[in-house]
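Q: What does the predicted 3D structure of ABC transmembrane type-1 domain-containing protein look like?
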Amino acid sequence: MTAKSAEAAEVGAAPGGLTRRRRRQLSLGGQYGLFAAAVVLVAVLADWETLRLNFANWDVARSLFPDVITVGLRNTAVYTAVGFGLGLGGGLLVALMRLSSVPPYRWFATAYIEVFRGLPLLLIFIFVGVGVPLAFPGANIPGGAAGQAGLALGLAATAYMAETIRAGIEAVPKGQLEAARSLGMSHSRAMRSIVIPQAFRIIIPPLTNELVLLCKDSSLVLFLGITLEQRELTKFGRDLAGEQGNTTPIIVAGICYLIITIPLSLLARRLEARQRRGQR
């Protein structure tokens, strides 16, 4: 084999042909060209004035304030916070039961996780809104709509957070627990003081992602039969869009969701990056 043939084989091309790198560059150039052509085609053919009037009508958007913040955004944040708090507390309890040496505890925790992770969240909301009042006549869930929404979100979040917390606990080196026991600590105290704090430092990023998901799932609160003052962002946007015959309120509601979720997503990525640096 000649030197020229060897060099061509090394770069992935026959003598006199295109190199592998050049073929890849041409392929990427073609893809970029198609994408640019599609953008130009949409920009030329779309009726931007009609889109603006129906999706970005400034007069309609301005009429939503301040209620979209003081009612929709506030209620969404409250429902999300209550659901996250219940899910975090319940998830820790179920995770400890899942790791317990007592078989009935493990069986209950396993069944709970599998059932509530498998059910659509809509069915859980319907169960809380309809099933609980029928099962316990005259009993009221504390907190009204916030309590009902928080309970529904918390029941689902508990199942997901339980698995996250369990994985975090199992990620803590077993030597930590053994060292604490050798110092005379009881198992429960070693878990509270040594293992669980380290586990939570490990699982902060996935818990932040769970908070983002709960914020979006709070839109299902509309199935609880809430009042005007209890509306979250999705219900608020839908009601105003129907009243005004314009889609702008839904777009504004979506932007308000982004005000919550984008900072949380950025926080989760920053925490994940910090955790990776700490493991090096």
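A (community wiki): The structure tokens above were generated from the sequence. DSSP finds twelve helices and no strands in the chain. The chain has a mean pLDDT of 83.
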